[in-house]
Amino acid sequence: MKKWKWYLTAFLCFCMVFGFLSPANAKTDNDEAAYVDVSVATLWTEPNIARDIDSPSLSNPVDMWKWTKSMTYEEKLWLVGNLETQALYGMKVTILEKRGDWAKVVVHGQPTPRHPLGYPGWMPIRQLTKGKVFAQFQAKPFAQVTSPTAWLYKDPKGNHKFMEISFNTRLPVVHSTKNAVKVMTPSDGAKWLKKEDVQIFRTEADIPSPTGEDLVNTAKQFLGLPYLWAGTSGFGFDCSGFTHTIYKAHGITIPRDSSVQAQFGIPVPESELQPGDLLFFAYNNGKGRIHHVGMYIGNGKMIHSPNSSTTVRIDDYRAPGYGEEFAGARRYIQK
Fold first, then answer.
1. For this structure, is 239 an active site residue?
2. For 229-254, how does the pLDDT look when each residue is reduced to its tens digit (9 = 90+)?
3. Out of 115, 239, 244, 250, which one is annotated catalytic?
4. Does residue 15 have an active-site annotation?
5. What is the pLDDT of residues 73-91, one digit of tens each?
6. How many C-beta neighbours within 10 Å does residue 326 have?
7. The pTM of the whole model exceeds 0.85
8. Longest CA span, the chain
9. Which is the catalytic residue, given 115, 244, 250, 304?
């Protein structure tokens, strides 16, 4: 068993021991499985609280660039506390509840103490599909998007665009040619991806174990990408969505939120930091609640997605504003 699986098992056991995973939270016969049917689904704390400016993120298809680029700083700041997380095209969710045109779901593969199945939140029902045919392809090898974003095409030559999708999106492979990969989509049949934008794996366990440098190089692809609260995609990340997604793309599942990421992995003394280690920051001079995470890249620097006013960037982790709040480091890969 890969070492990351031991971490996830330990995390789930911790949640059960401390009562986070109660029988009341467990899946019932009334819960429904579904798949995300848009490039990026944004989950909200409650249904029907979105503003008019959020419309591009609520439709099917979505227009993520139109949404993120249309917001002012103040409008982005409003999202803080109103969004939960995001889910990528083809991700499996479990529907817990429906209220009008909205569904409360949990996103599989995003561990949290809040629910045993995954990360919870509300999203428009129109962005979900039962995906009965798609479900039959889940045991197939998958193509994982390795570019920050990539286009799905209607044809193998890439002449007719279908949808722009995110880094770390995984779609079952139907067929492969020299330059393109035919993949199955949740509700629109087979489409094509350029081979240069993906890697193909038989299972998640076949993703090579990364070095710290591998993680850092992947993270650096997103330098300059504007921050988005709750973001987990190549269209925008929050701090923990960034670290969670970079690790996930390398086959390592870590908790979704920084406060929980700080509880697992291996504690690392500051004098022994290595690239790929996660750095945590807390209120009350590093002794209070964890509120931020970055990835160490060496030479006293970290790459991170700081806040709604800026972008993915590199900073000295001991610089004013960070140094006094440093709360320790964790390692999720075997050195």
1. yes
2. 999 999 999 999 999 999 999 999 99
3. 239
4. no
5. 999 999 999 999 999 999 9
6. 16
7. yes
8. 56
9. 304
